[in-house]
Amino acid sequence: MQRKINLLLLLFSLLGGGVAFVLGELLLDQRPYDLPSIVLVGIYFAIVALGVGLGCLLAEIISPKLNGLSWKQRYLGFSWKMLPLTLVLLFAVGSVMEFVYELNFGGVKPVKDVVMVIDDSGSMMQSDPGNSRYKAAESLVQRMDEDNKVAVVTFSQDATVVQPLIPLSSSANREQVTSVINSLQTTDGGTNISGALTEAMGVINSDNQSGRGAMVILLSDGFSQFDTETELTEYVNRGIAVNTIGLALDDPSGSALLQDIAATTGGQYYDVTNADLLGGVFQQIYDRLGDRTLLTERSDYTADSPYYAGVRILALLLVGTALGIGLGIVFDNRHLARSFGAGGAVSGLFAGLILEFGLDGHSFGDAMTRLLALLVLAAIIALFTFVIPVGEGRLSRKRGRSADAAAPSAGFPSPRRNRGSKGF
Q1: Burial of 420 by CB count in 10 Å (0-12 exposed, 13-18 middle, 19+ buried)?
Q2: Ramachandran region of residue 68, left (φ > 0), alpha (ψ -120 to 50) or beta?
């Protein structure tokens, strides 16, 4: 039993983690076949197991410093056969932990209803002369899932529900909402944000279906008198986020109000200087709708939840442990399984902390955070053999004994049992 490091294994493990990162990012970006998050995350971690596992296996084939020459001579074929088992193990652990992470506790409801609250006051003639806000809303409706419901509220001096909540399960309903939005136009009058949010809450309360959460997208270019402490009480109590968009806001008080509304309700504020960019902002808000996976930032009102933070960190700890034990199974070595497993637990803990505190909702930054987490995961596992000593020791003892028994003694024939007369 010795403490030792295979630097080639460390290098190949990092390279495997890098390749897994590229493949994983393609998976997250393309999301083939509209895979549910549970399956998607499971496949992501299976890819990680493939990259890191294959890298470690190739390194030990070239330079078997950890597992010994006897492994390479006798059990290499067995190791290749066991590699898929590690993929299945990581897929199972990742999927189960993603399932747990997506569970809603404490009355939390998945957000399915979206209320778009759109400013059509007179000032919009300057802020959005081309009515890009209506085009953005229409585009979003066309892209929303079939299990969503949508409503539209417009406001100037007064607020009006132009489209009550309607399910988008049929193309006819979707076309109806689109037609309503196409008929909207800028009016005269001021900016009554208070009345708009009151009408939006009325729309939400009109839906009697339990188990459905709601959120609001509020777009405005102005300012109005609004008491966030009292007028947002029901939003806060029910956990309904108001995502606000400030369009071409020159008055800092208007921007401050929209930021305050978003912060109070657990939503996000978006500052948009050009109305032509509204389509992308609407889509970004929708893409973050209830987005809660182990690999992305929590964008619902559980964003600051210590419970979900703990579940994510625990999930990565278990993923790392499973990856380490899986590598030990691949090499058919109980000492490596113990060392890699302990290293996996430590690396998974660090990877979980990196994801929990590093993800911020920006695509490039989040990708780099995931890359760092994967490299830390791969590196610590590879280096942990210097902390916990390793040596040769088969996991499959029966296989090891039969293999040893089958091997002839060096240069001598196997002794033959005399079946002749007993005692003579």
Answers
A1: exposed
A2: left
Phi, psi of 381 (to 5 degrees): -60, -45
Element containing residue 403 per DSSP (H, E): helix 397-406
- pLDDT by 10-residue block (mean), the chain, 424 residues: 90 97 93 85 97 96 88 87 95 96 74 94 92 95 92 95 95 96 90 95 86 90 89 91 91 91 90 93 81 82 84 97 95 91 97 95 90 97 92 61 43 46 33
- Whether 253 contacts 223, CB under 8 Å: yes
Please provide the DSSP assignment of 406-423 as one string: HSPPTTSPPPPP--S-TT
Give the whole-angstrom CA distance, residue 376 versus residue 383: 11
The span from the CA of 243 to the CA of 266, in Å, is 8
Question: What's the rounded Cα separation, in Å, for the pair 158 and 73?
Answer: 82
Packing angle, helices 278-287 and 132-143, rounded to 10? 30
**What's the pLDDT at 290?**
59
Distance, in Å, from the CA atom of 91 to the CA atom of 42, rounded to the nearest integer, reads 4
Tell whether pTM > 0.90.
no
Q: What is the pLDDT of residues 39-57, one digit of tens each?
A: 999 999 999 999 999 999 9
Q: Are strands 213-220 and 159-167 parallel, antiparallel or unpaired?
A: unpaired
Q: Which two tokens stand for residue 325?
A: 């034990």
